[in-house]
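Example 3.2
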Amino acid sequence: MNIAEIENKKIAILLSGGVDSSVVVYEFAKLGLHPDCFYIKIGPEEEEEWDCSSEEDLEMATAVAHKYGCRLEVIDCHKEYWDQVTKYTMDKVRAGLTPNPDVMCNRLIKFGAFDEKRGHDYDLIATGHYAQTEIDAEGRKWLVTSPDPVKDQTDFLAQIADWQLRKALFPIGHYVKDEVRVIAEQEHLVNAKRKDSQGICFLGKINYNDYIRRYLGEQPGDVIELETGKRIGEHKGLWFHTIGQRKGMGFGGGPWFVVKKDVAQNILYVSHGYDPETAYKQDFAVRDFHFLTKCLTLCEVTFKIRHTPEYHPATLEWTGENAFIVHSKEKIHGVAPGQFCVIYDANYHRCLGSGEITV
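Structure, written as tokens:
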């Protein structure tokens, strides 16, 4: 965190109750600063139906804010989340695509709805993301990767608007996760040993398939082996499966891999064997590419299509405004329409933005 960046600035901290954002509060406190903290509340519509950890989150956020003498305010973004992020997710899965709710949550809620409600009163919004920023010679702000390749979250931030990036502050982005844990334990934070959330953004312990089932229900259809046309079973809904999936299929004689969806016929195509050729792609199209800082027409890049530590080298063939074909230098497993392809520079240092895969 650059002292010059925060000097004389009014700062809001998004405090989730997790260890990462709690250490953010500590990072300010050790500088003698006590910014206002905000807990964004997004409970499910009928909480009794869900195993929701929001009450525990708020208790921990309250304890951390109190420990460092910060004011905590609860901001209700329930309606915005379920109207915007849930609608985006359900529209995509209904169409047979593979959306990423966490990506849109950052754009629409953490740096969107929150800014409309309270964030507009602040110069900077600090979060516990594992990401960094840098300013170039022209004064432009870039999103850059964290030194922790496993925890780096630039891919989840690659759809935020340029004005949102200018207000974003990532005080723990220069740490790796183990360092954050050590700080939390040294500071005796109430959540120092709390496990990281593995669920959808803001939904705590809610299972993704339960989240989908709550809104779309089930729609059984045939499961067909791609190579032979043989029916091997029945699925409960195309939206419960993703391209490249190899676990949780529930069919004998496996392993099976999801390789294709026919939405019109409600057919799930699978391939048999270990990493079948049909599960891989090397060239795929991307549309509606969103540039974070500056429009570029780079050719040599690296990219991700899911939240993993690996960056894949590729060349881009530009086919129109904000559209291109990715020519990966290696075959990629599980490329699926609707996923975000996140583009980085050749050294996977700067995150340039992201767009939707259309294959």
